[in-house]
Automatic annotation (TrEMBL):
It is found in: Cytoplasm. It comes from the Bacteria. The lineage of its organism: Bacteria, Pseudomonadati, Spirochaetota, Spirochaetia, Spirochaetales. One of its GO terms (cellular component) is cytoplasm. It comes from Sphaerochaeta halotolerans. It holds the Pfam family Nitroreductase. Keywords: Cytoplasm, Oxidoreductase. The keyword Cytoplasm applies. Its main location: cytoplasm. This is Nitroreductase.
Amino acid sequence: MESTIINSMKKRRTIYNLGKELPVMKSTVEDAVREVITYAPSAFNSQTSRAVILYGKEHDWLWDLILSKLLAMVPDPEQKKQTEDKIAAFKAASGTILFFEEMATILQLQEQMPLYSENFTLWSHHGTGIAQFSVWTVLAELKVGASLQHYGNLIEKEVLAHFSLPASWSLTAQMPFGSIMQEPGDKDFLPSEERVRVIS
């Protein structure tokens, strides 16, 4: 089956070995993120996804903050070294995209439609996942490497304050991106018969 979208999805991989030199202009990455955030679907067209793109010292500040939080939680010296190496790889990237959800909109929808109230948080997770995957796939099309990380529970308060972001924004993921310094290895897949059933 020939499909441009599926071919793009196949290019999206987790890239841990990232470099500073992007294969495209920064503005190209920024425009791509804006387009994805605009057009990614959301429940009731709520448009709750938000993104912040960090470069330079602000990108470094983020990963230094994450490292400090993690080291305070890791007592073992060997684990500390592994943690330092892991975060250094993310910091070596060209930049980071922070993904957020606008919780004020979600709360408003919960009040407006109490019948669906319990579902809006779940649908918000769906929406941010769609936005993250779509940005990741578009970056792959641009030959920009990326990975998806989740340290929001450790750093949200500091991030919102440091960047003067609304208190109603909830930090859902961090995506370091940059040049691909090492291609990923082959990826194994379960047989499609185990994951997709056709019933008629």
